[in-house]
């Protein structure tokens, strides 16, 4: 299993967090979704043979939300940026 952390700036309340989580859960291969409102992040566990970070971003975009780009420092975001 691989993990991706996505930052969704518009994820400001529980209703949006639920909508984002549902969108991510529709991607084939997603095994877990944990959202953190305090940091506007979704941590997604997925089978890399079935899903990709690009597919995760596309699912969030299709739900009407933007995923922020990873920091220019080269951070993959996997640690949550901490």
Automatic annotation (TrEMBL):
<dbReference type="GO" id="GO:0046872">
    <property type="term" value="F:metal ion binding"/>
</dbReference>
<feature type="domain" description="HMA">
    <location>
        <begin position="2"/>
        <end position="68"/>
    </location>
</feature>
<dbReference type="InterPro" id="IPR036163">
    <property type="entry name" value="HMA_dom_sf"/>
</dbReference>
<protein>
    <submittedName>
        <fullName>Copper chaperone</fullName>
    </submittedName>
</protein>
<dbReference type="Pfam" id="PF00403">
    <property type="entry name" value="HMA"/>
</dbReference>
<dbReference type="InterPro" id="IPR006121">
    <property type="entry name" value="HMA_dom"/>
</dbReference>
